Amino acid sequence: MALPIRSLHLGENENYELERNLWNDRFIAATMRVNGQSSKVLVRYRGGHTRTYPKRSYEVVRQGRVYHYNAEFDDPSMIRNALSFRFFEWLKVPSPRTRHVLLYRNGEPLGVYLEIEGVERHFFRKRGIGYASLFYAVNNDANFELRASDSLHHKSSLLSGYEHKAGGYEERARLMSFIKGIHEHNGSKAASFLKCRLDTDNYLRWLAGAVLTGNYDGFEQNYALYRHRKSGKFRIIPWDYEGTWGRNCYGNVVSSGLVDVKGYNALSAKLLEQPAFRARYKTILAEALRGPFTERRLMPVVRRMMGELSPHIRKDTMQRWEFSEFRGEEERIRTYIRERRKLIAAAIRKW
């Protein structure tokens, strides 16, 4: 199957600036051709350690909308992000839409990329979701703790780890108040506080998704947090799920039992202390084991995605992995699903 083509064109000066400022998040002007139509865009590199790779990822603003073009360099299947976001939608957690494309830069083929919908105003508008604020969790200080993740010292700011993307200054105070409140209340007061400030069903479904897919890095960063305009409650959206389904964010094979059923952050721990929230979470996990988190539901999607990519991966000279590794990923993901199902079912019974 032919993949859509995205063609970036940068002028000589702009090309130089983009390369010179590898770690600078300043956008560079360019043009992009999509579906036969060219338009002006802004482009920059994106990612953390991946910026040092020979095949880099891009963020593009096109016609007022944000798109991420992920090289998925550490994922030999190139489908883990796409599969994860599809799975979250089945769990009723709004997630970015994706499609695989062939990316060109100044006529040079860069290979297969994953085009990911940015979480910004168009994301919410398309889904009819009103939002009063939006924060990106950009590093592991976004752990809902009072202390930094790598020390015993209190954070200089409770917003450490977050990038404030939308909402007035008062929304910063609301999020800080929420994080502080997690640690101030216990027992029934904690339950009332969380029920008032957090969309607990959304959060528990997100937690189930992160736990089932095995995203070790997804609990303290790599999510978007927004305050729903109508309810006034915080909700969460997944982001960056390349390190899932049996591999970590560097592409290393990991145990299917790496991620604890309770996840890893202060908010999850506080929620799961409450019998009612814990019971609801167990119900969500059990429902997932009967429905979307099954080979019957997931493997046809895996086969279709990998089948569409196979001829293009074979010809992609920018890939880190041998084609034989790509071909083995269907069975690796299947094995992960089987093993993870058993582990989660056992954890639910013991809990």
Automatic annotation (TrEMBL):
Which InterPro entries does this chain map to?
Spore_coat_CotH_CotH2/3/7
Q: What is the lineage of its organism?
A: Bacteria, Bacillati, Bacillota, Bacilli, Bacillales
Cite the entry's keywords alphabetically.
Kinase, Transferase
Q: Quote one Gene Ontology molecular function term.
A: kinase activity
- What is the name of the protein in this document? CotH kinase family protein
